[in-house]
């Protein structure tokens, strides 16, 4: 038994070393990727559930790795956070998204999305120059601050006083904040009024069960009600079916996002998608 335990310990140590090796390989490659044009941004439309109009787009980062192919943000945002590279990745996405937003304004006029949503990562918040950097990008691109929405998760927004202050400083620039993945974190409906957010994004895990679970229907409906009473806008994430869109519209959820409307699209794809709409 002792021997087996020893082997297991060695296997464990080996697995840890292997994990660390892969991690540092990814770290080095990500460091390079930021400067080698391997990162790019795709855009997912956010649509009004009332009238079908394109209200916004959410910018989502992608990494085209020369060997590994397309790497999902789920597989590198965490490493970017741990290594501090998130500051550069975040700045890249924000700059790129704001520039693209202004291109669409010029190209499509009133048909262009009126809002650009960009994800903010936990690791970006404590960075002392965050607010100045965001202000500089808005200024450089000529965007109106109200056309930018930053998305933070519940666990980020519900953190300490310093984080809350930082979020309020961001809002003071004139942009709006959305609470991402609502329902998956630990802040409850009851504590929503304390968070400096304007929009609530209902997590996909609730939307995907709307058709099959009464419990989830009730939860989503109450979430929309409470949001309304706090004058927060609601966006449902991960809408994949007509039925889900219909139920959410009936609950008076404001906007929807999901494969039912469009997947995250490259710029040319987005232009074609927009042109094809009535
Ligand atoms: P998120 O912010 O919750 O973004 C929504 C995710 O759901 C996206 O995954 C999107 O492609 C996916 N999605 C949208 N509609 C549907 C649907 O109908 N069905 C399903 N199954 N999925 C749908 P993606 O692009 O892989 O991003 C995953 C997460 O990675 C994001 O979740 C966000 O937390 C993070 N992320 C992505 N881009 C960025 C970025 O530029 N900065 C930061 N900090 N995080 C990012
Ligand atoms: Ca998001
Ligand atoms: Ca989300
Ligand atoms: Ca999510």
UniProtKB/TrEMBL annotation:
<protein>
    <submittedName>
        <fullName>Diguanylate cyclase (GGDEF)-like protein</fullName>
    </submittedName>
</protein>
<feature type="domain" description="EAL">
    <location>
        <begin position="23"/>
        <end position="278"/>
    </location>
</feature>
């Amino acid at each position: 038994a002792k021997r087996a335990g020893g082997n297991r310990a060695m296997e464990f140590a080996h697995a840890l070393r292997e994990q660390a090796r892969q991690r540092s390989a990814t770290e080095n490659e990500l460091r390079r990727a930021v400067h080698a044009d391997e990162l790019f941004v795709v855009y997912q439309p956010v649509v009004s559930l009332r009238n079908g109009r394109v209200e916004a787009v959410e910018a989502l980062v992608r990494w085209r790795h020369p060997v590994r192919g397309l790497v999902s943000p789920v597989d590198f945002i965490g490493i970017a956070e741990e290594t501090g590279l998130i500051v550069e990745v975040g700045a890249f996405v924000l700059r790129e998204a704001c520039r693209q937003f202004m291109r669409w304004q010029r190209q499509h006029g009133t048909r262009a999305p009126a809002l650009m949503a960009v994800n903010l990562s936990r690791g970006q918040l404590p960075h002392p120059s965050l607010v100045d950097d965001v202000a500089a990008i808005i200024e450089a691109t000529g965007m109106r601050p109200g056309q930018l929405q930053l998305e933070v998760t519940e666990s980020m927004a519900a953190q300490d006083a310093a984080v809350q202050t930082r979020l309020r400083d961001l809002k003071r620039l004139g942009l709006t904040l959305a609470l991402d993945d609502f329902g998956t974190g630990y802040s409850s409906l009851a504590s929503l009024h304390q968070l400096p957010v304007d929009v609530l994004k209902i997590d996909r895990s609730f939307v995907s069960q709307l058709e099959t679970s009464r419990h989830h229907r009730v939860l989503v409906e109450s979430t929309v009600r409470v949001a309304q009473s706090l004058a927060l806008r609601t966006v449902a994430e991960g809408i994949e079916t007509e039925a889900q869109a219909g139920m959410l519209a009936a609950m008076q959820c404001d906007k929807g996002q999901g494969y039912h409307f469009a997947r995250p699209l490259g710029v040319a794809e987005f232009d074609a998608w927009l042109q094809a709409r009535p």
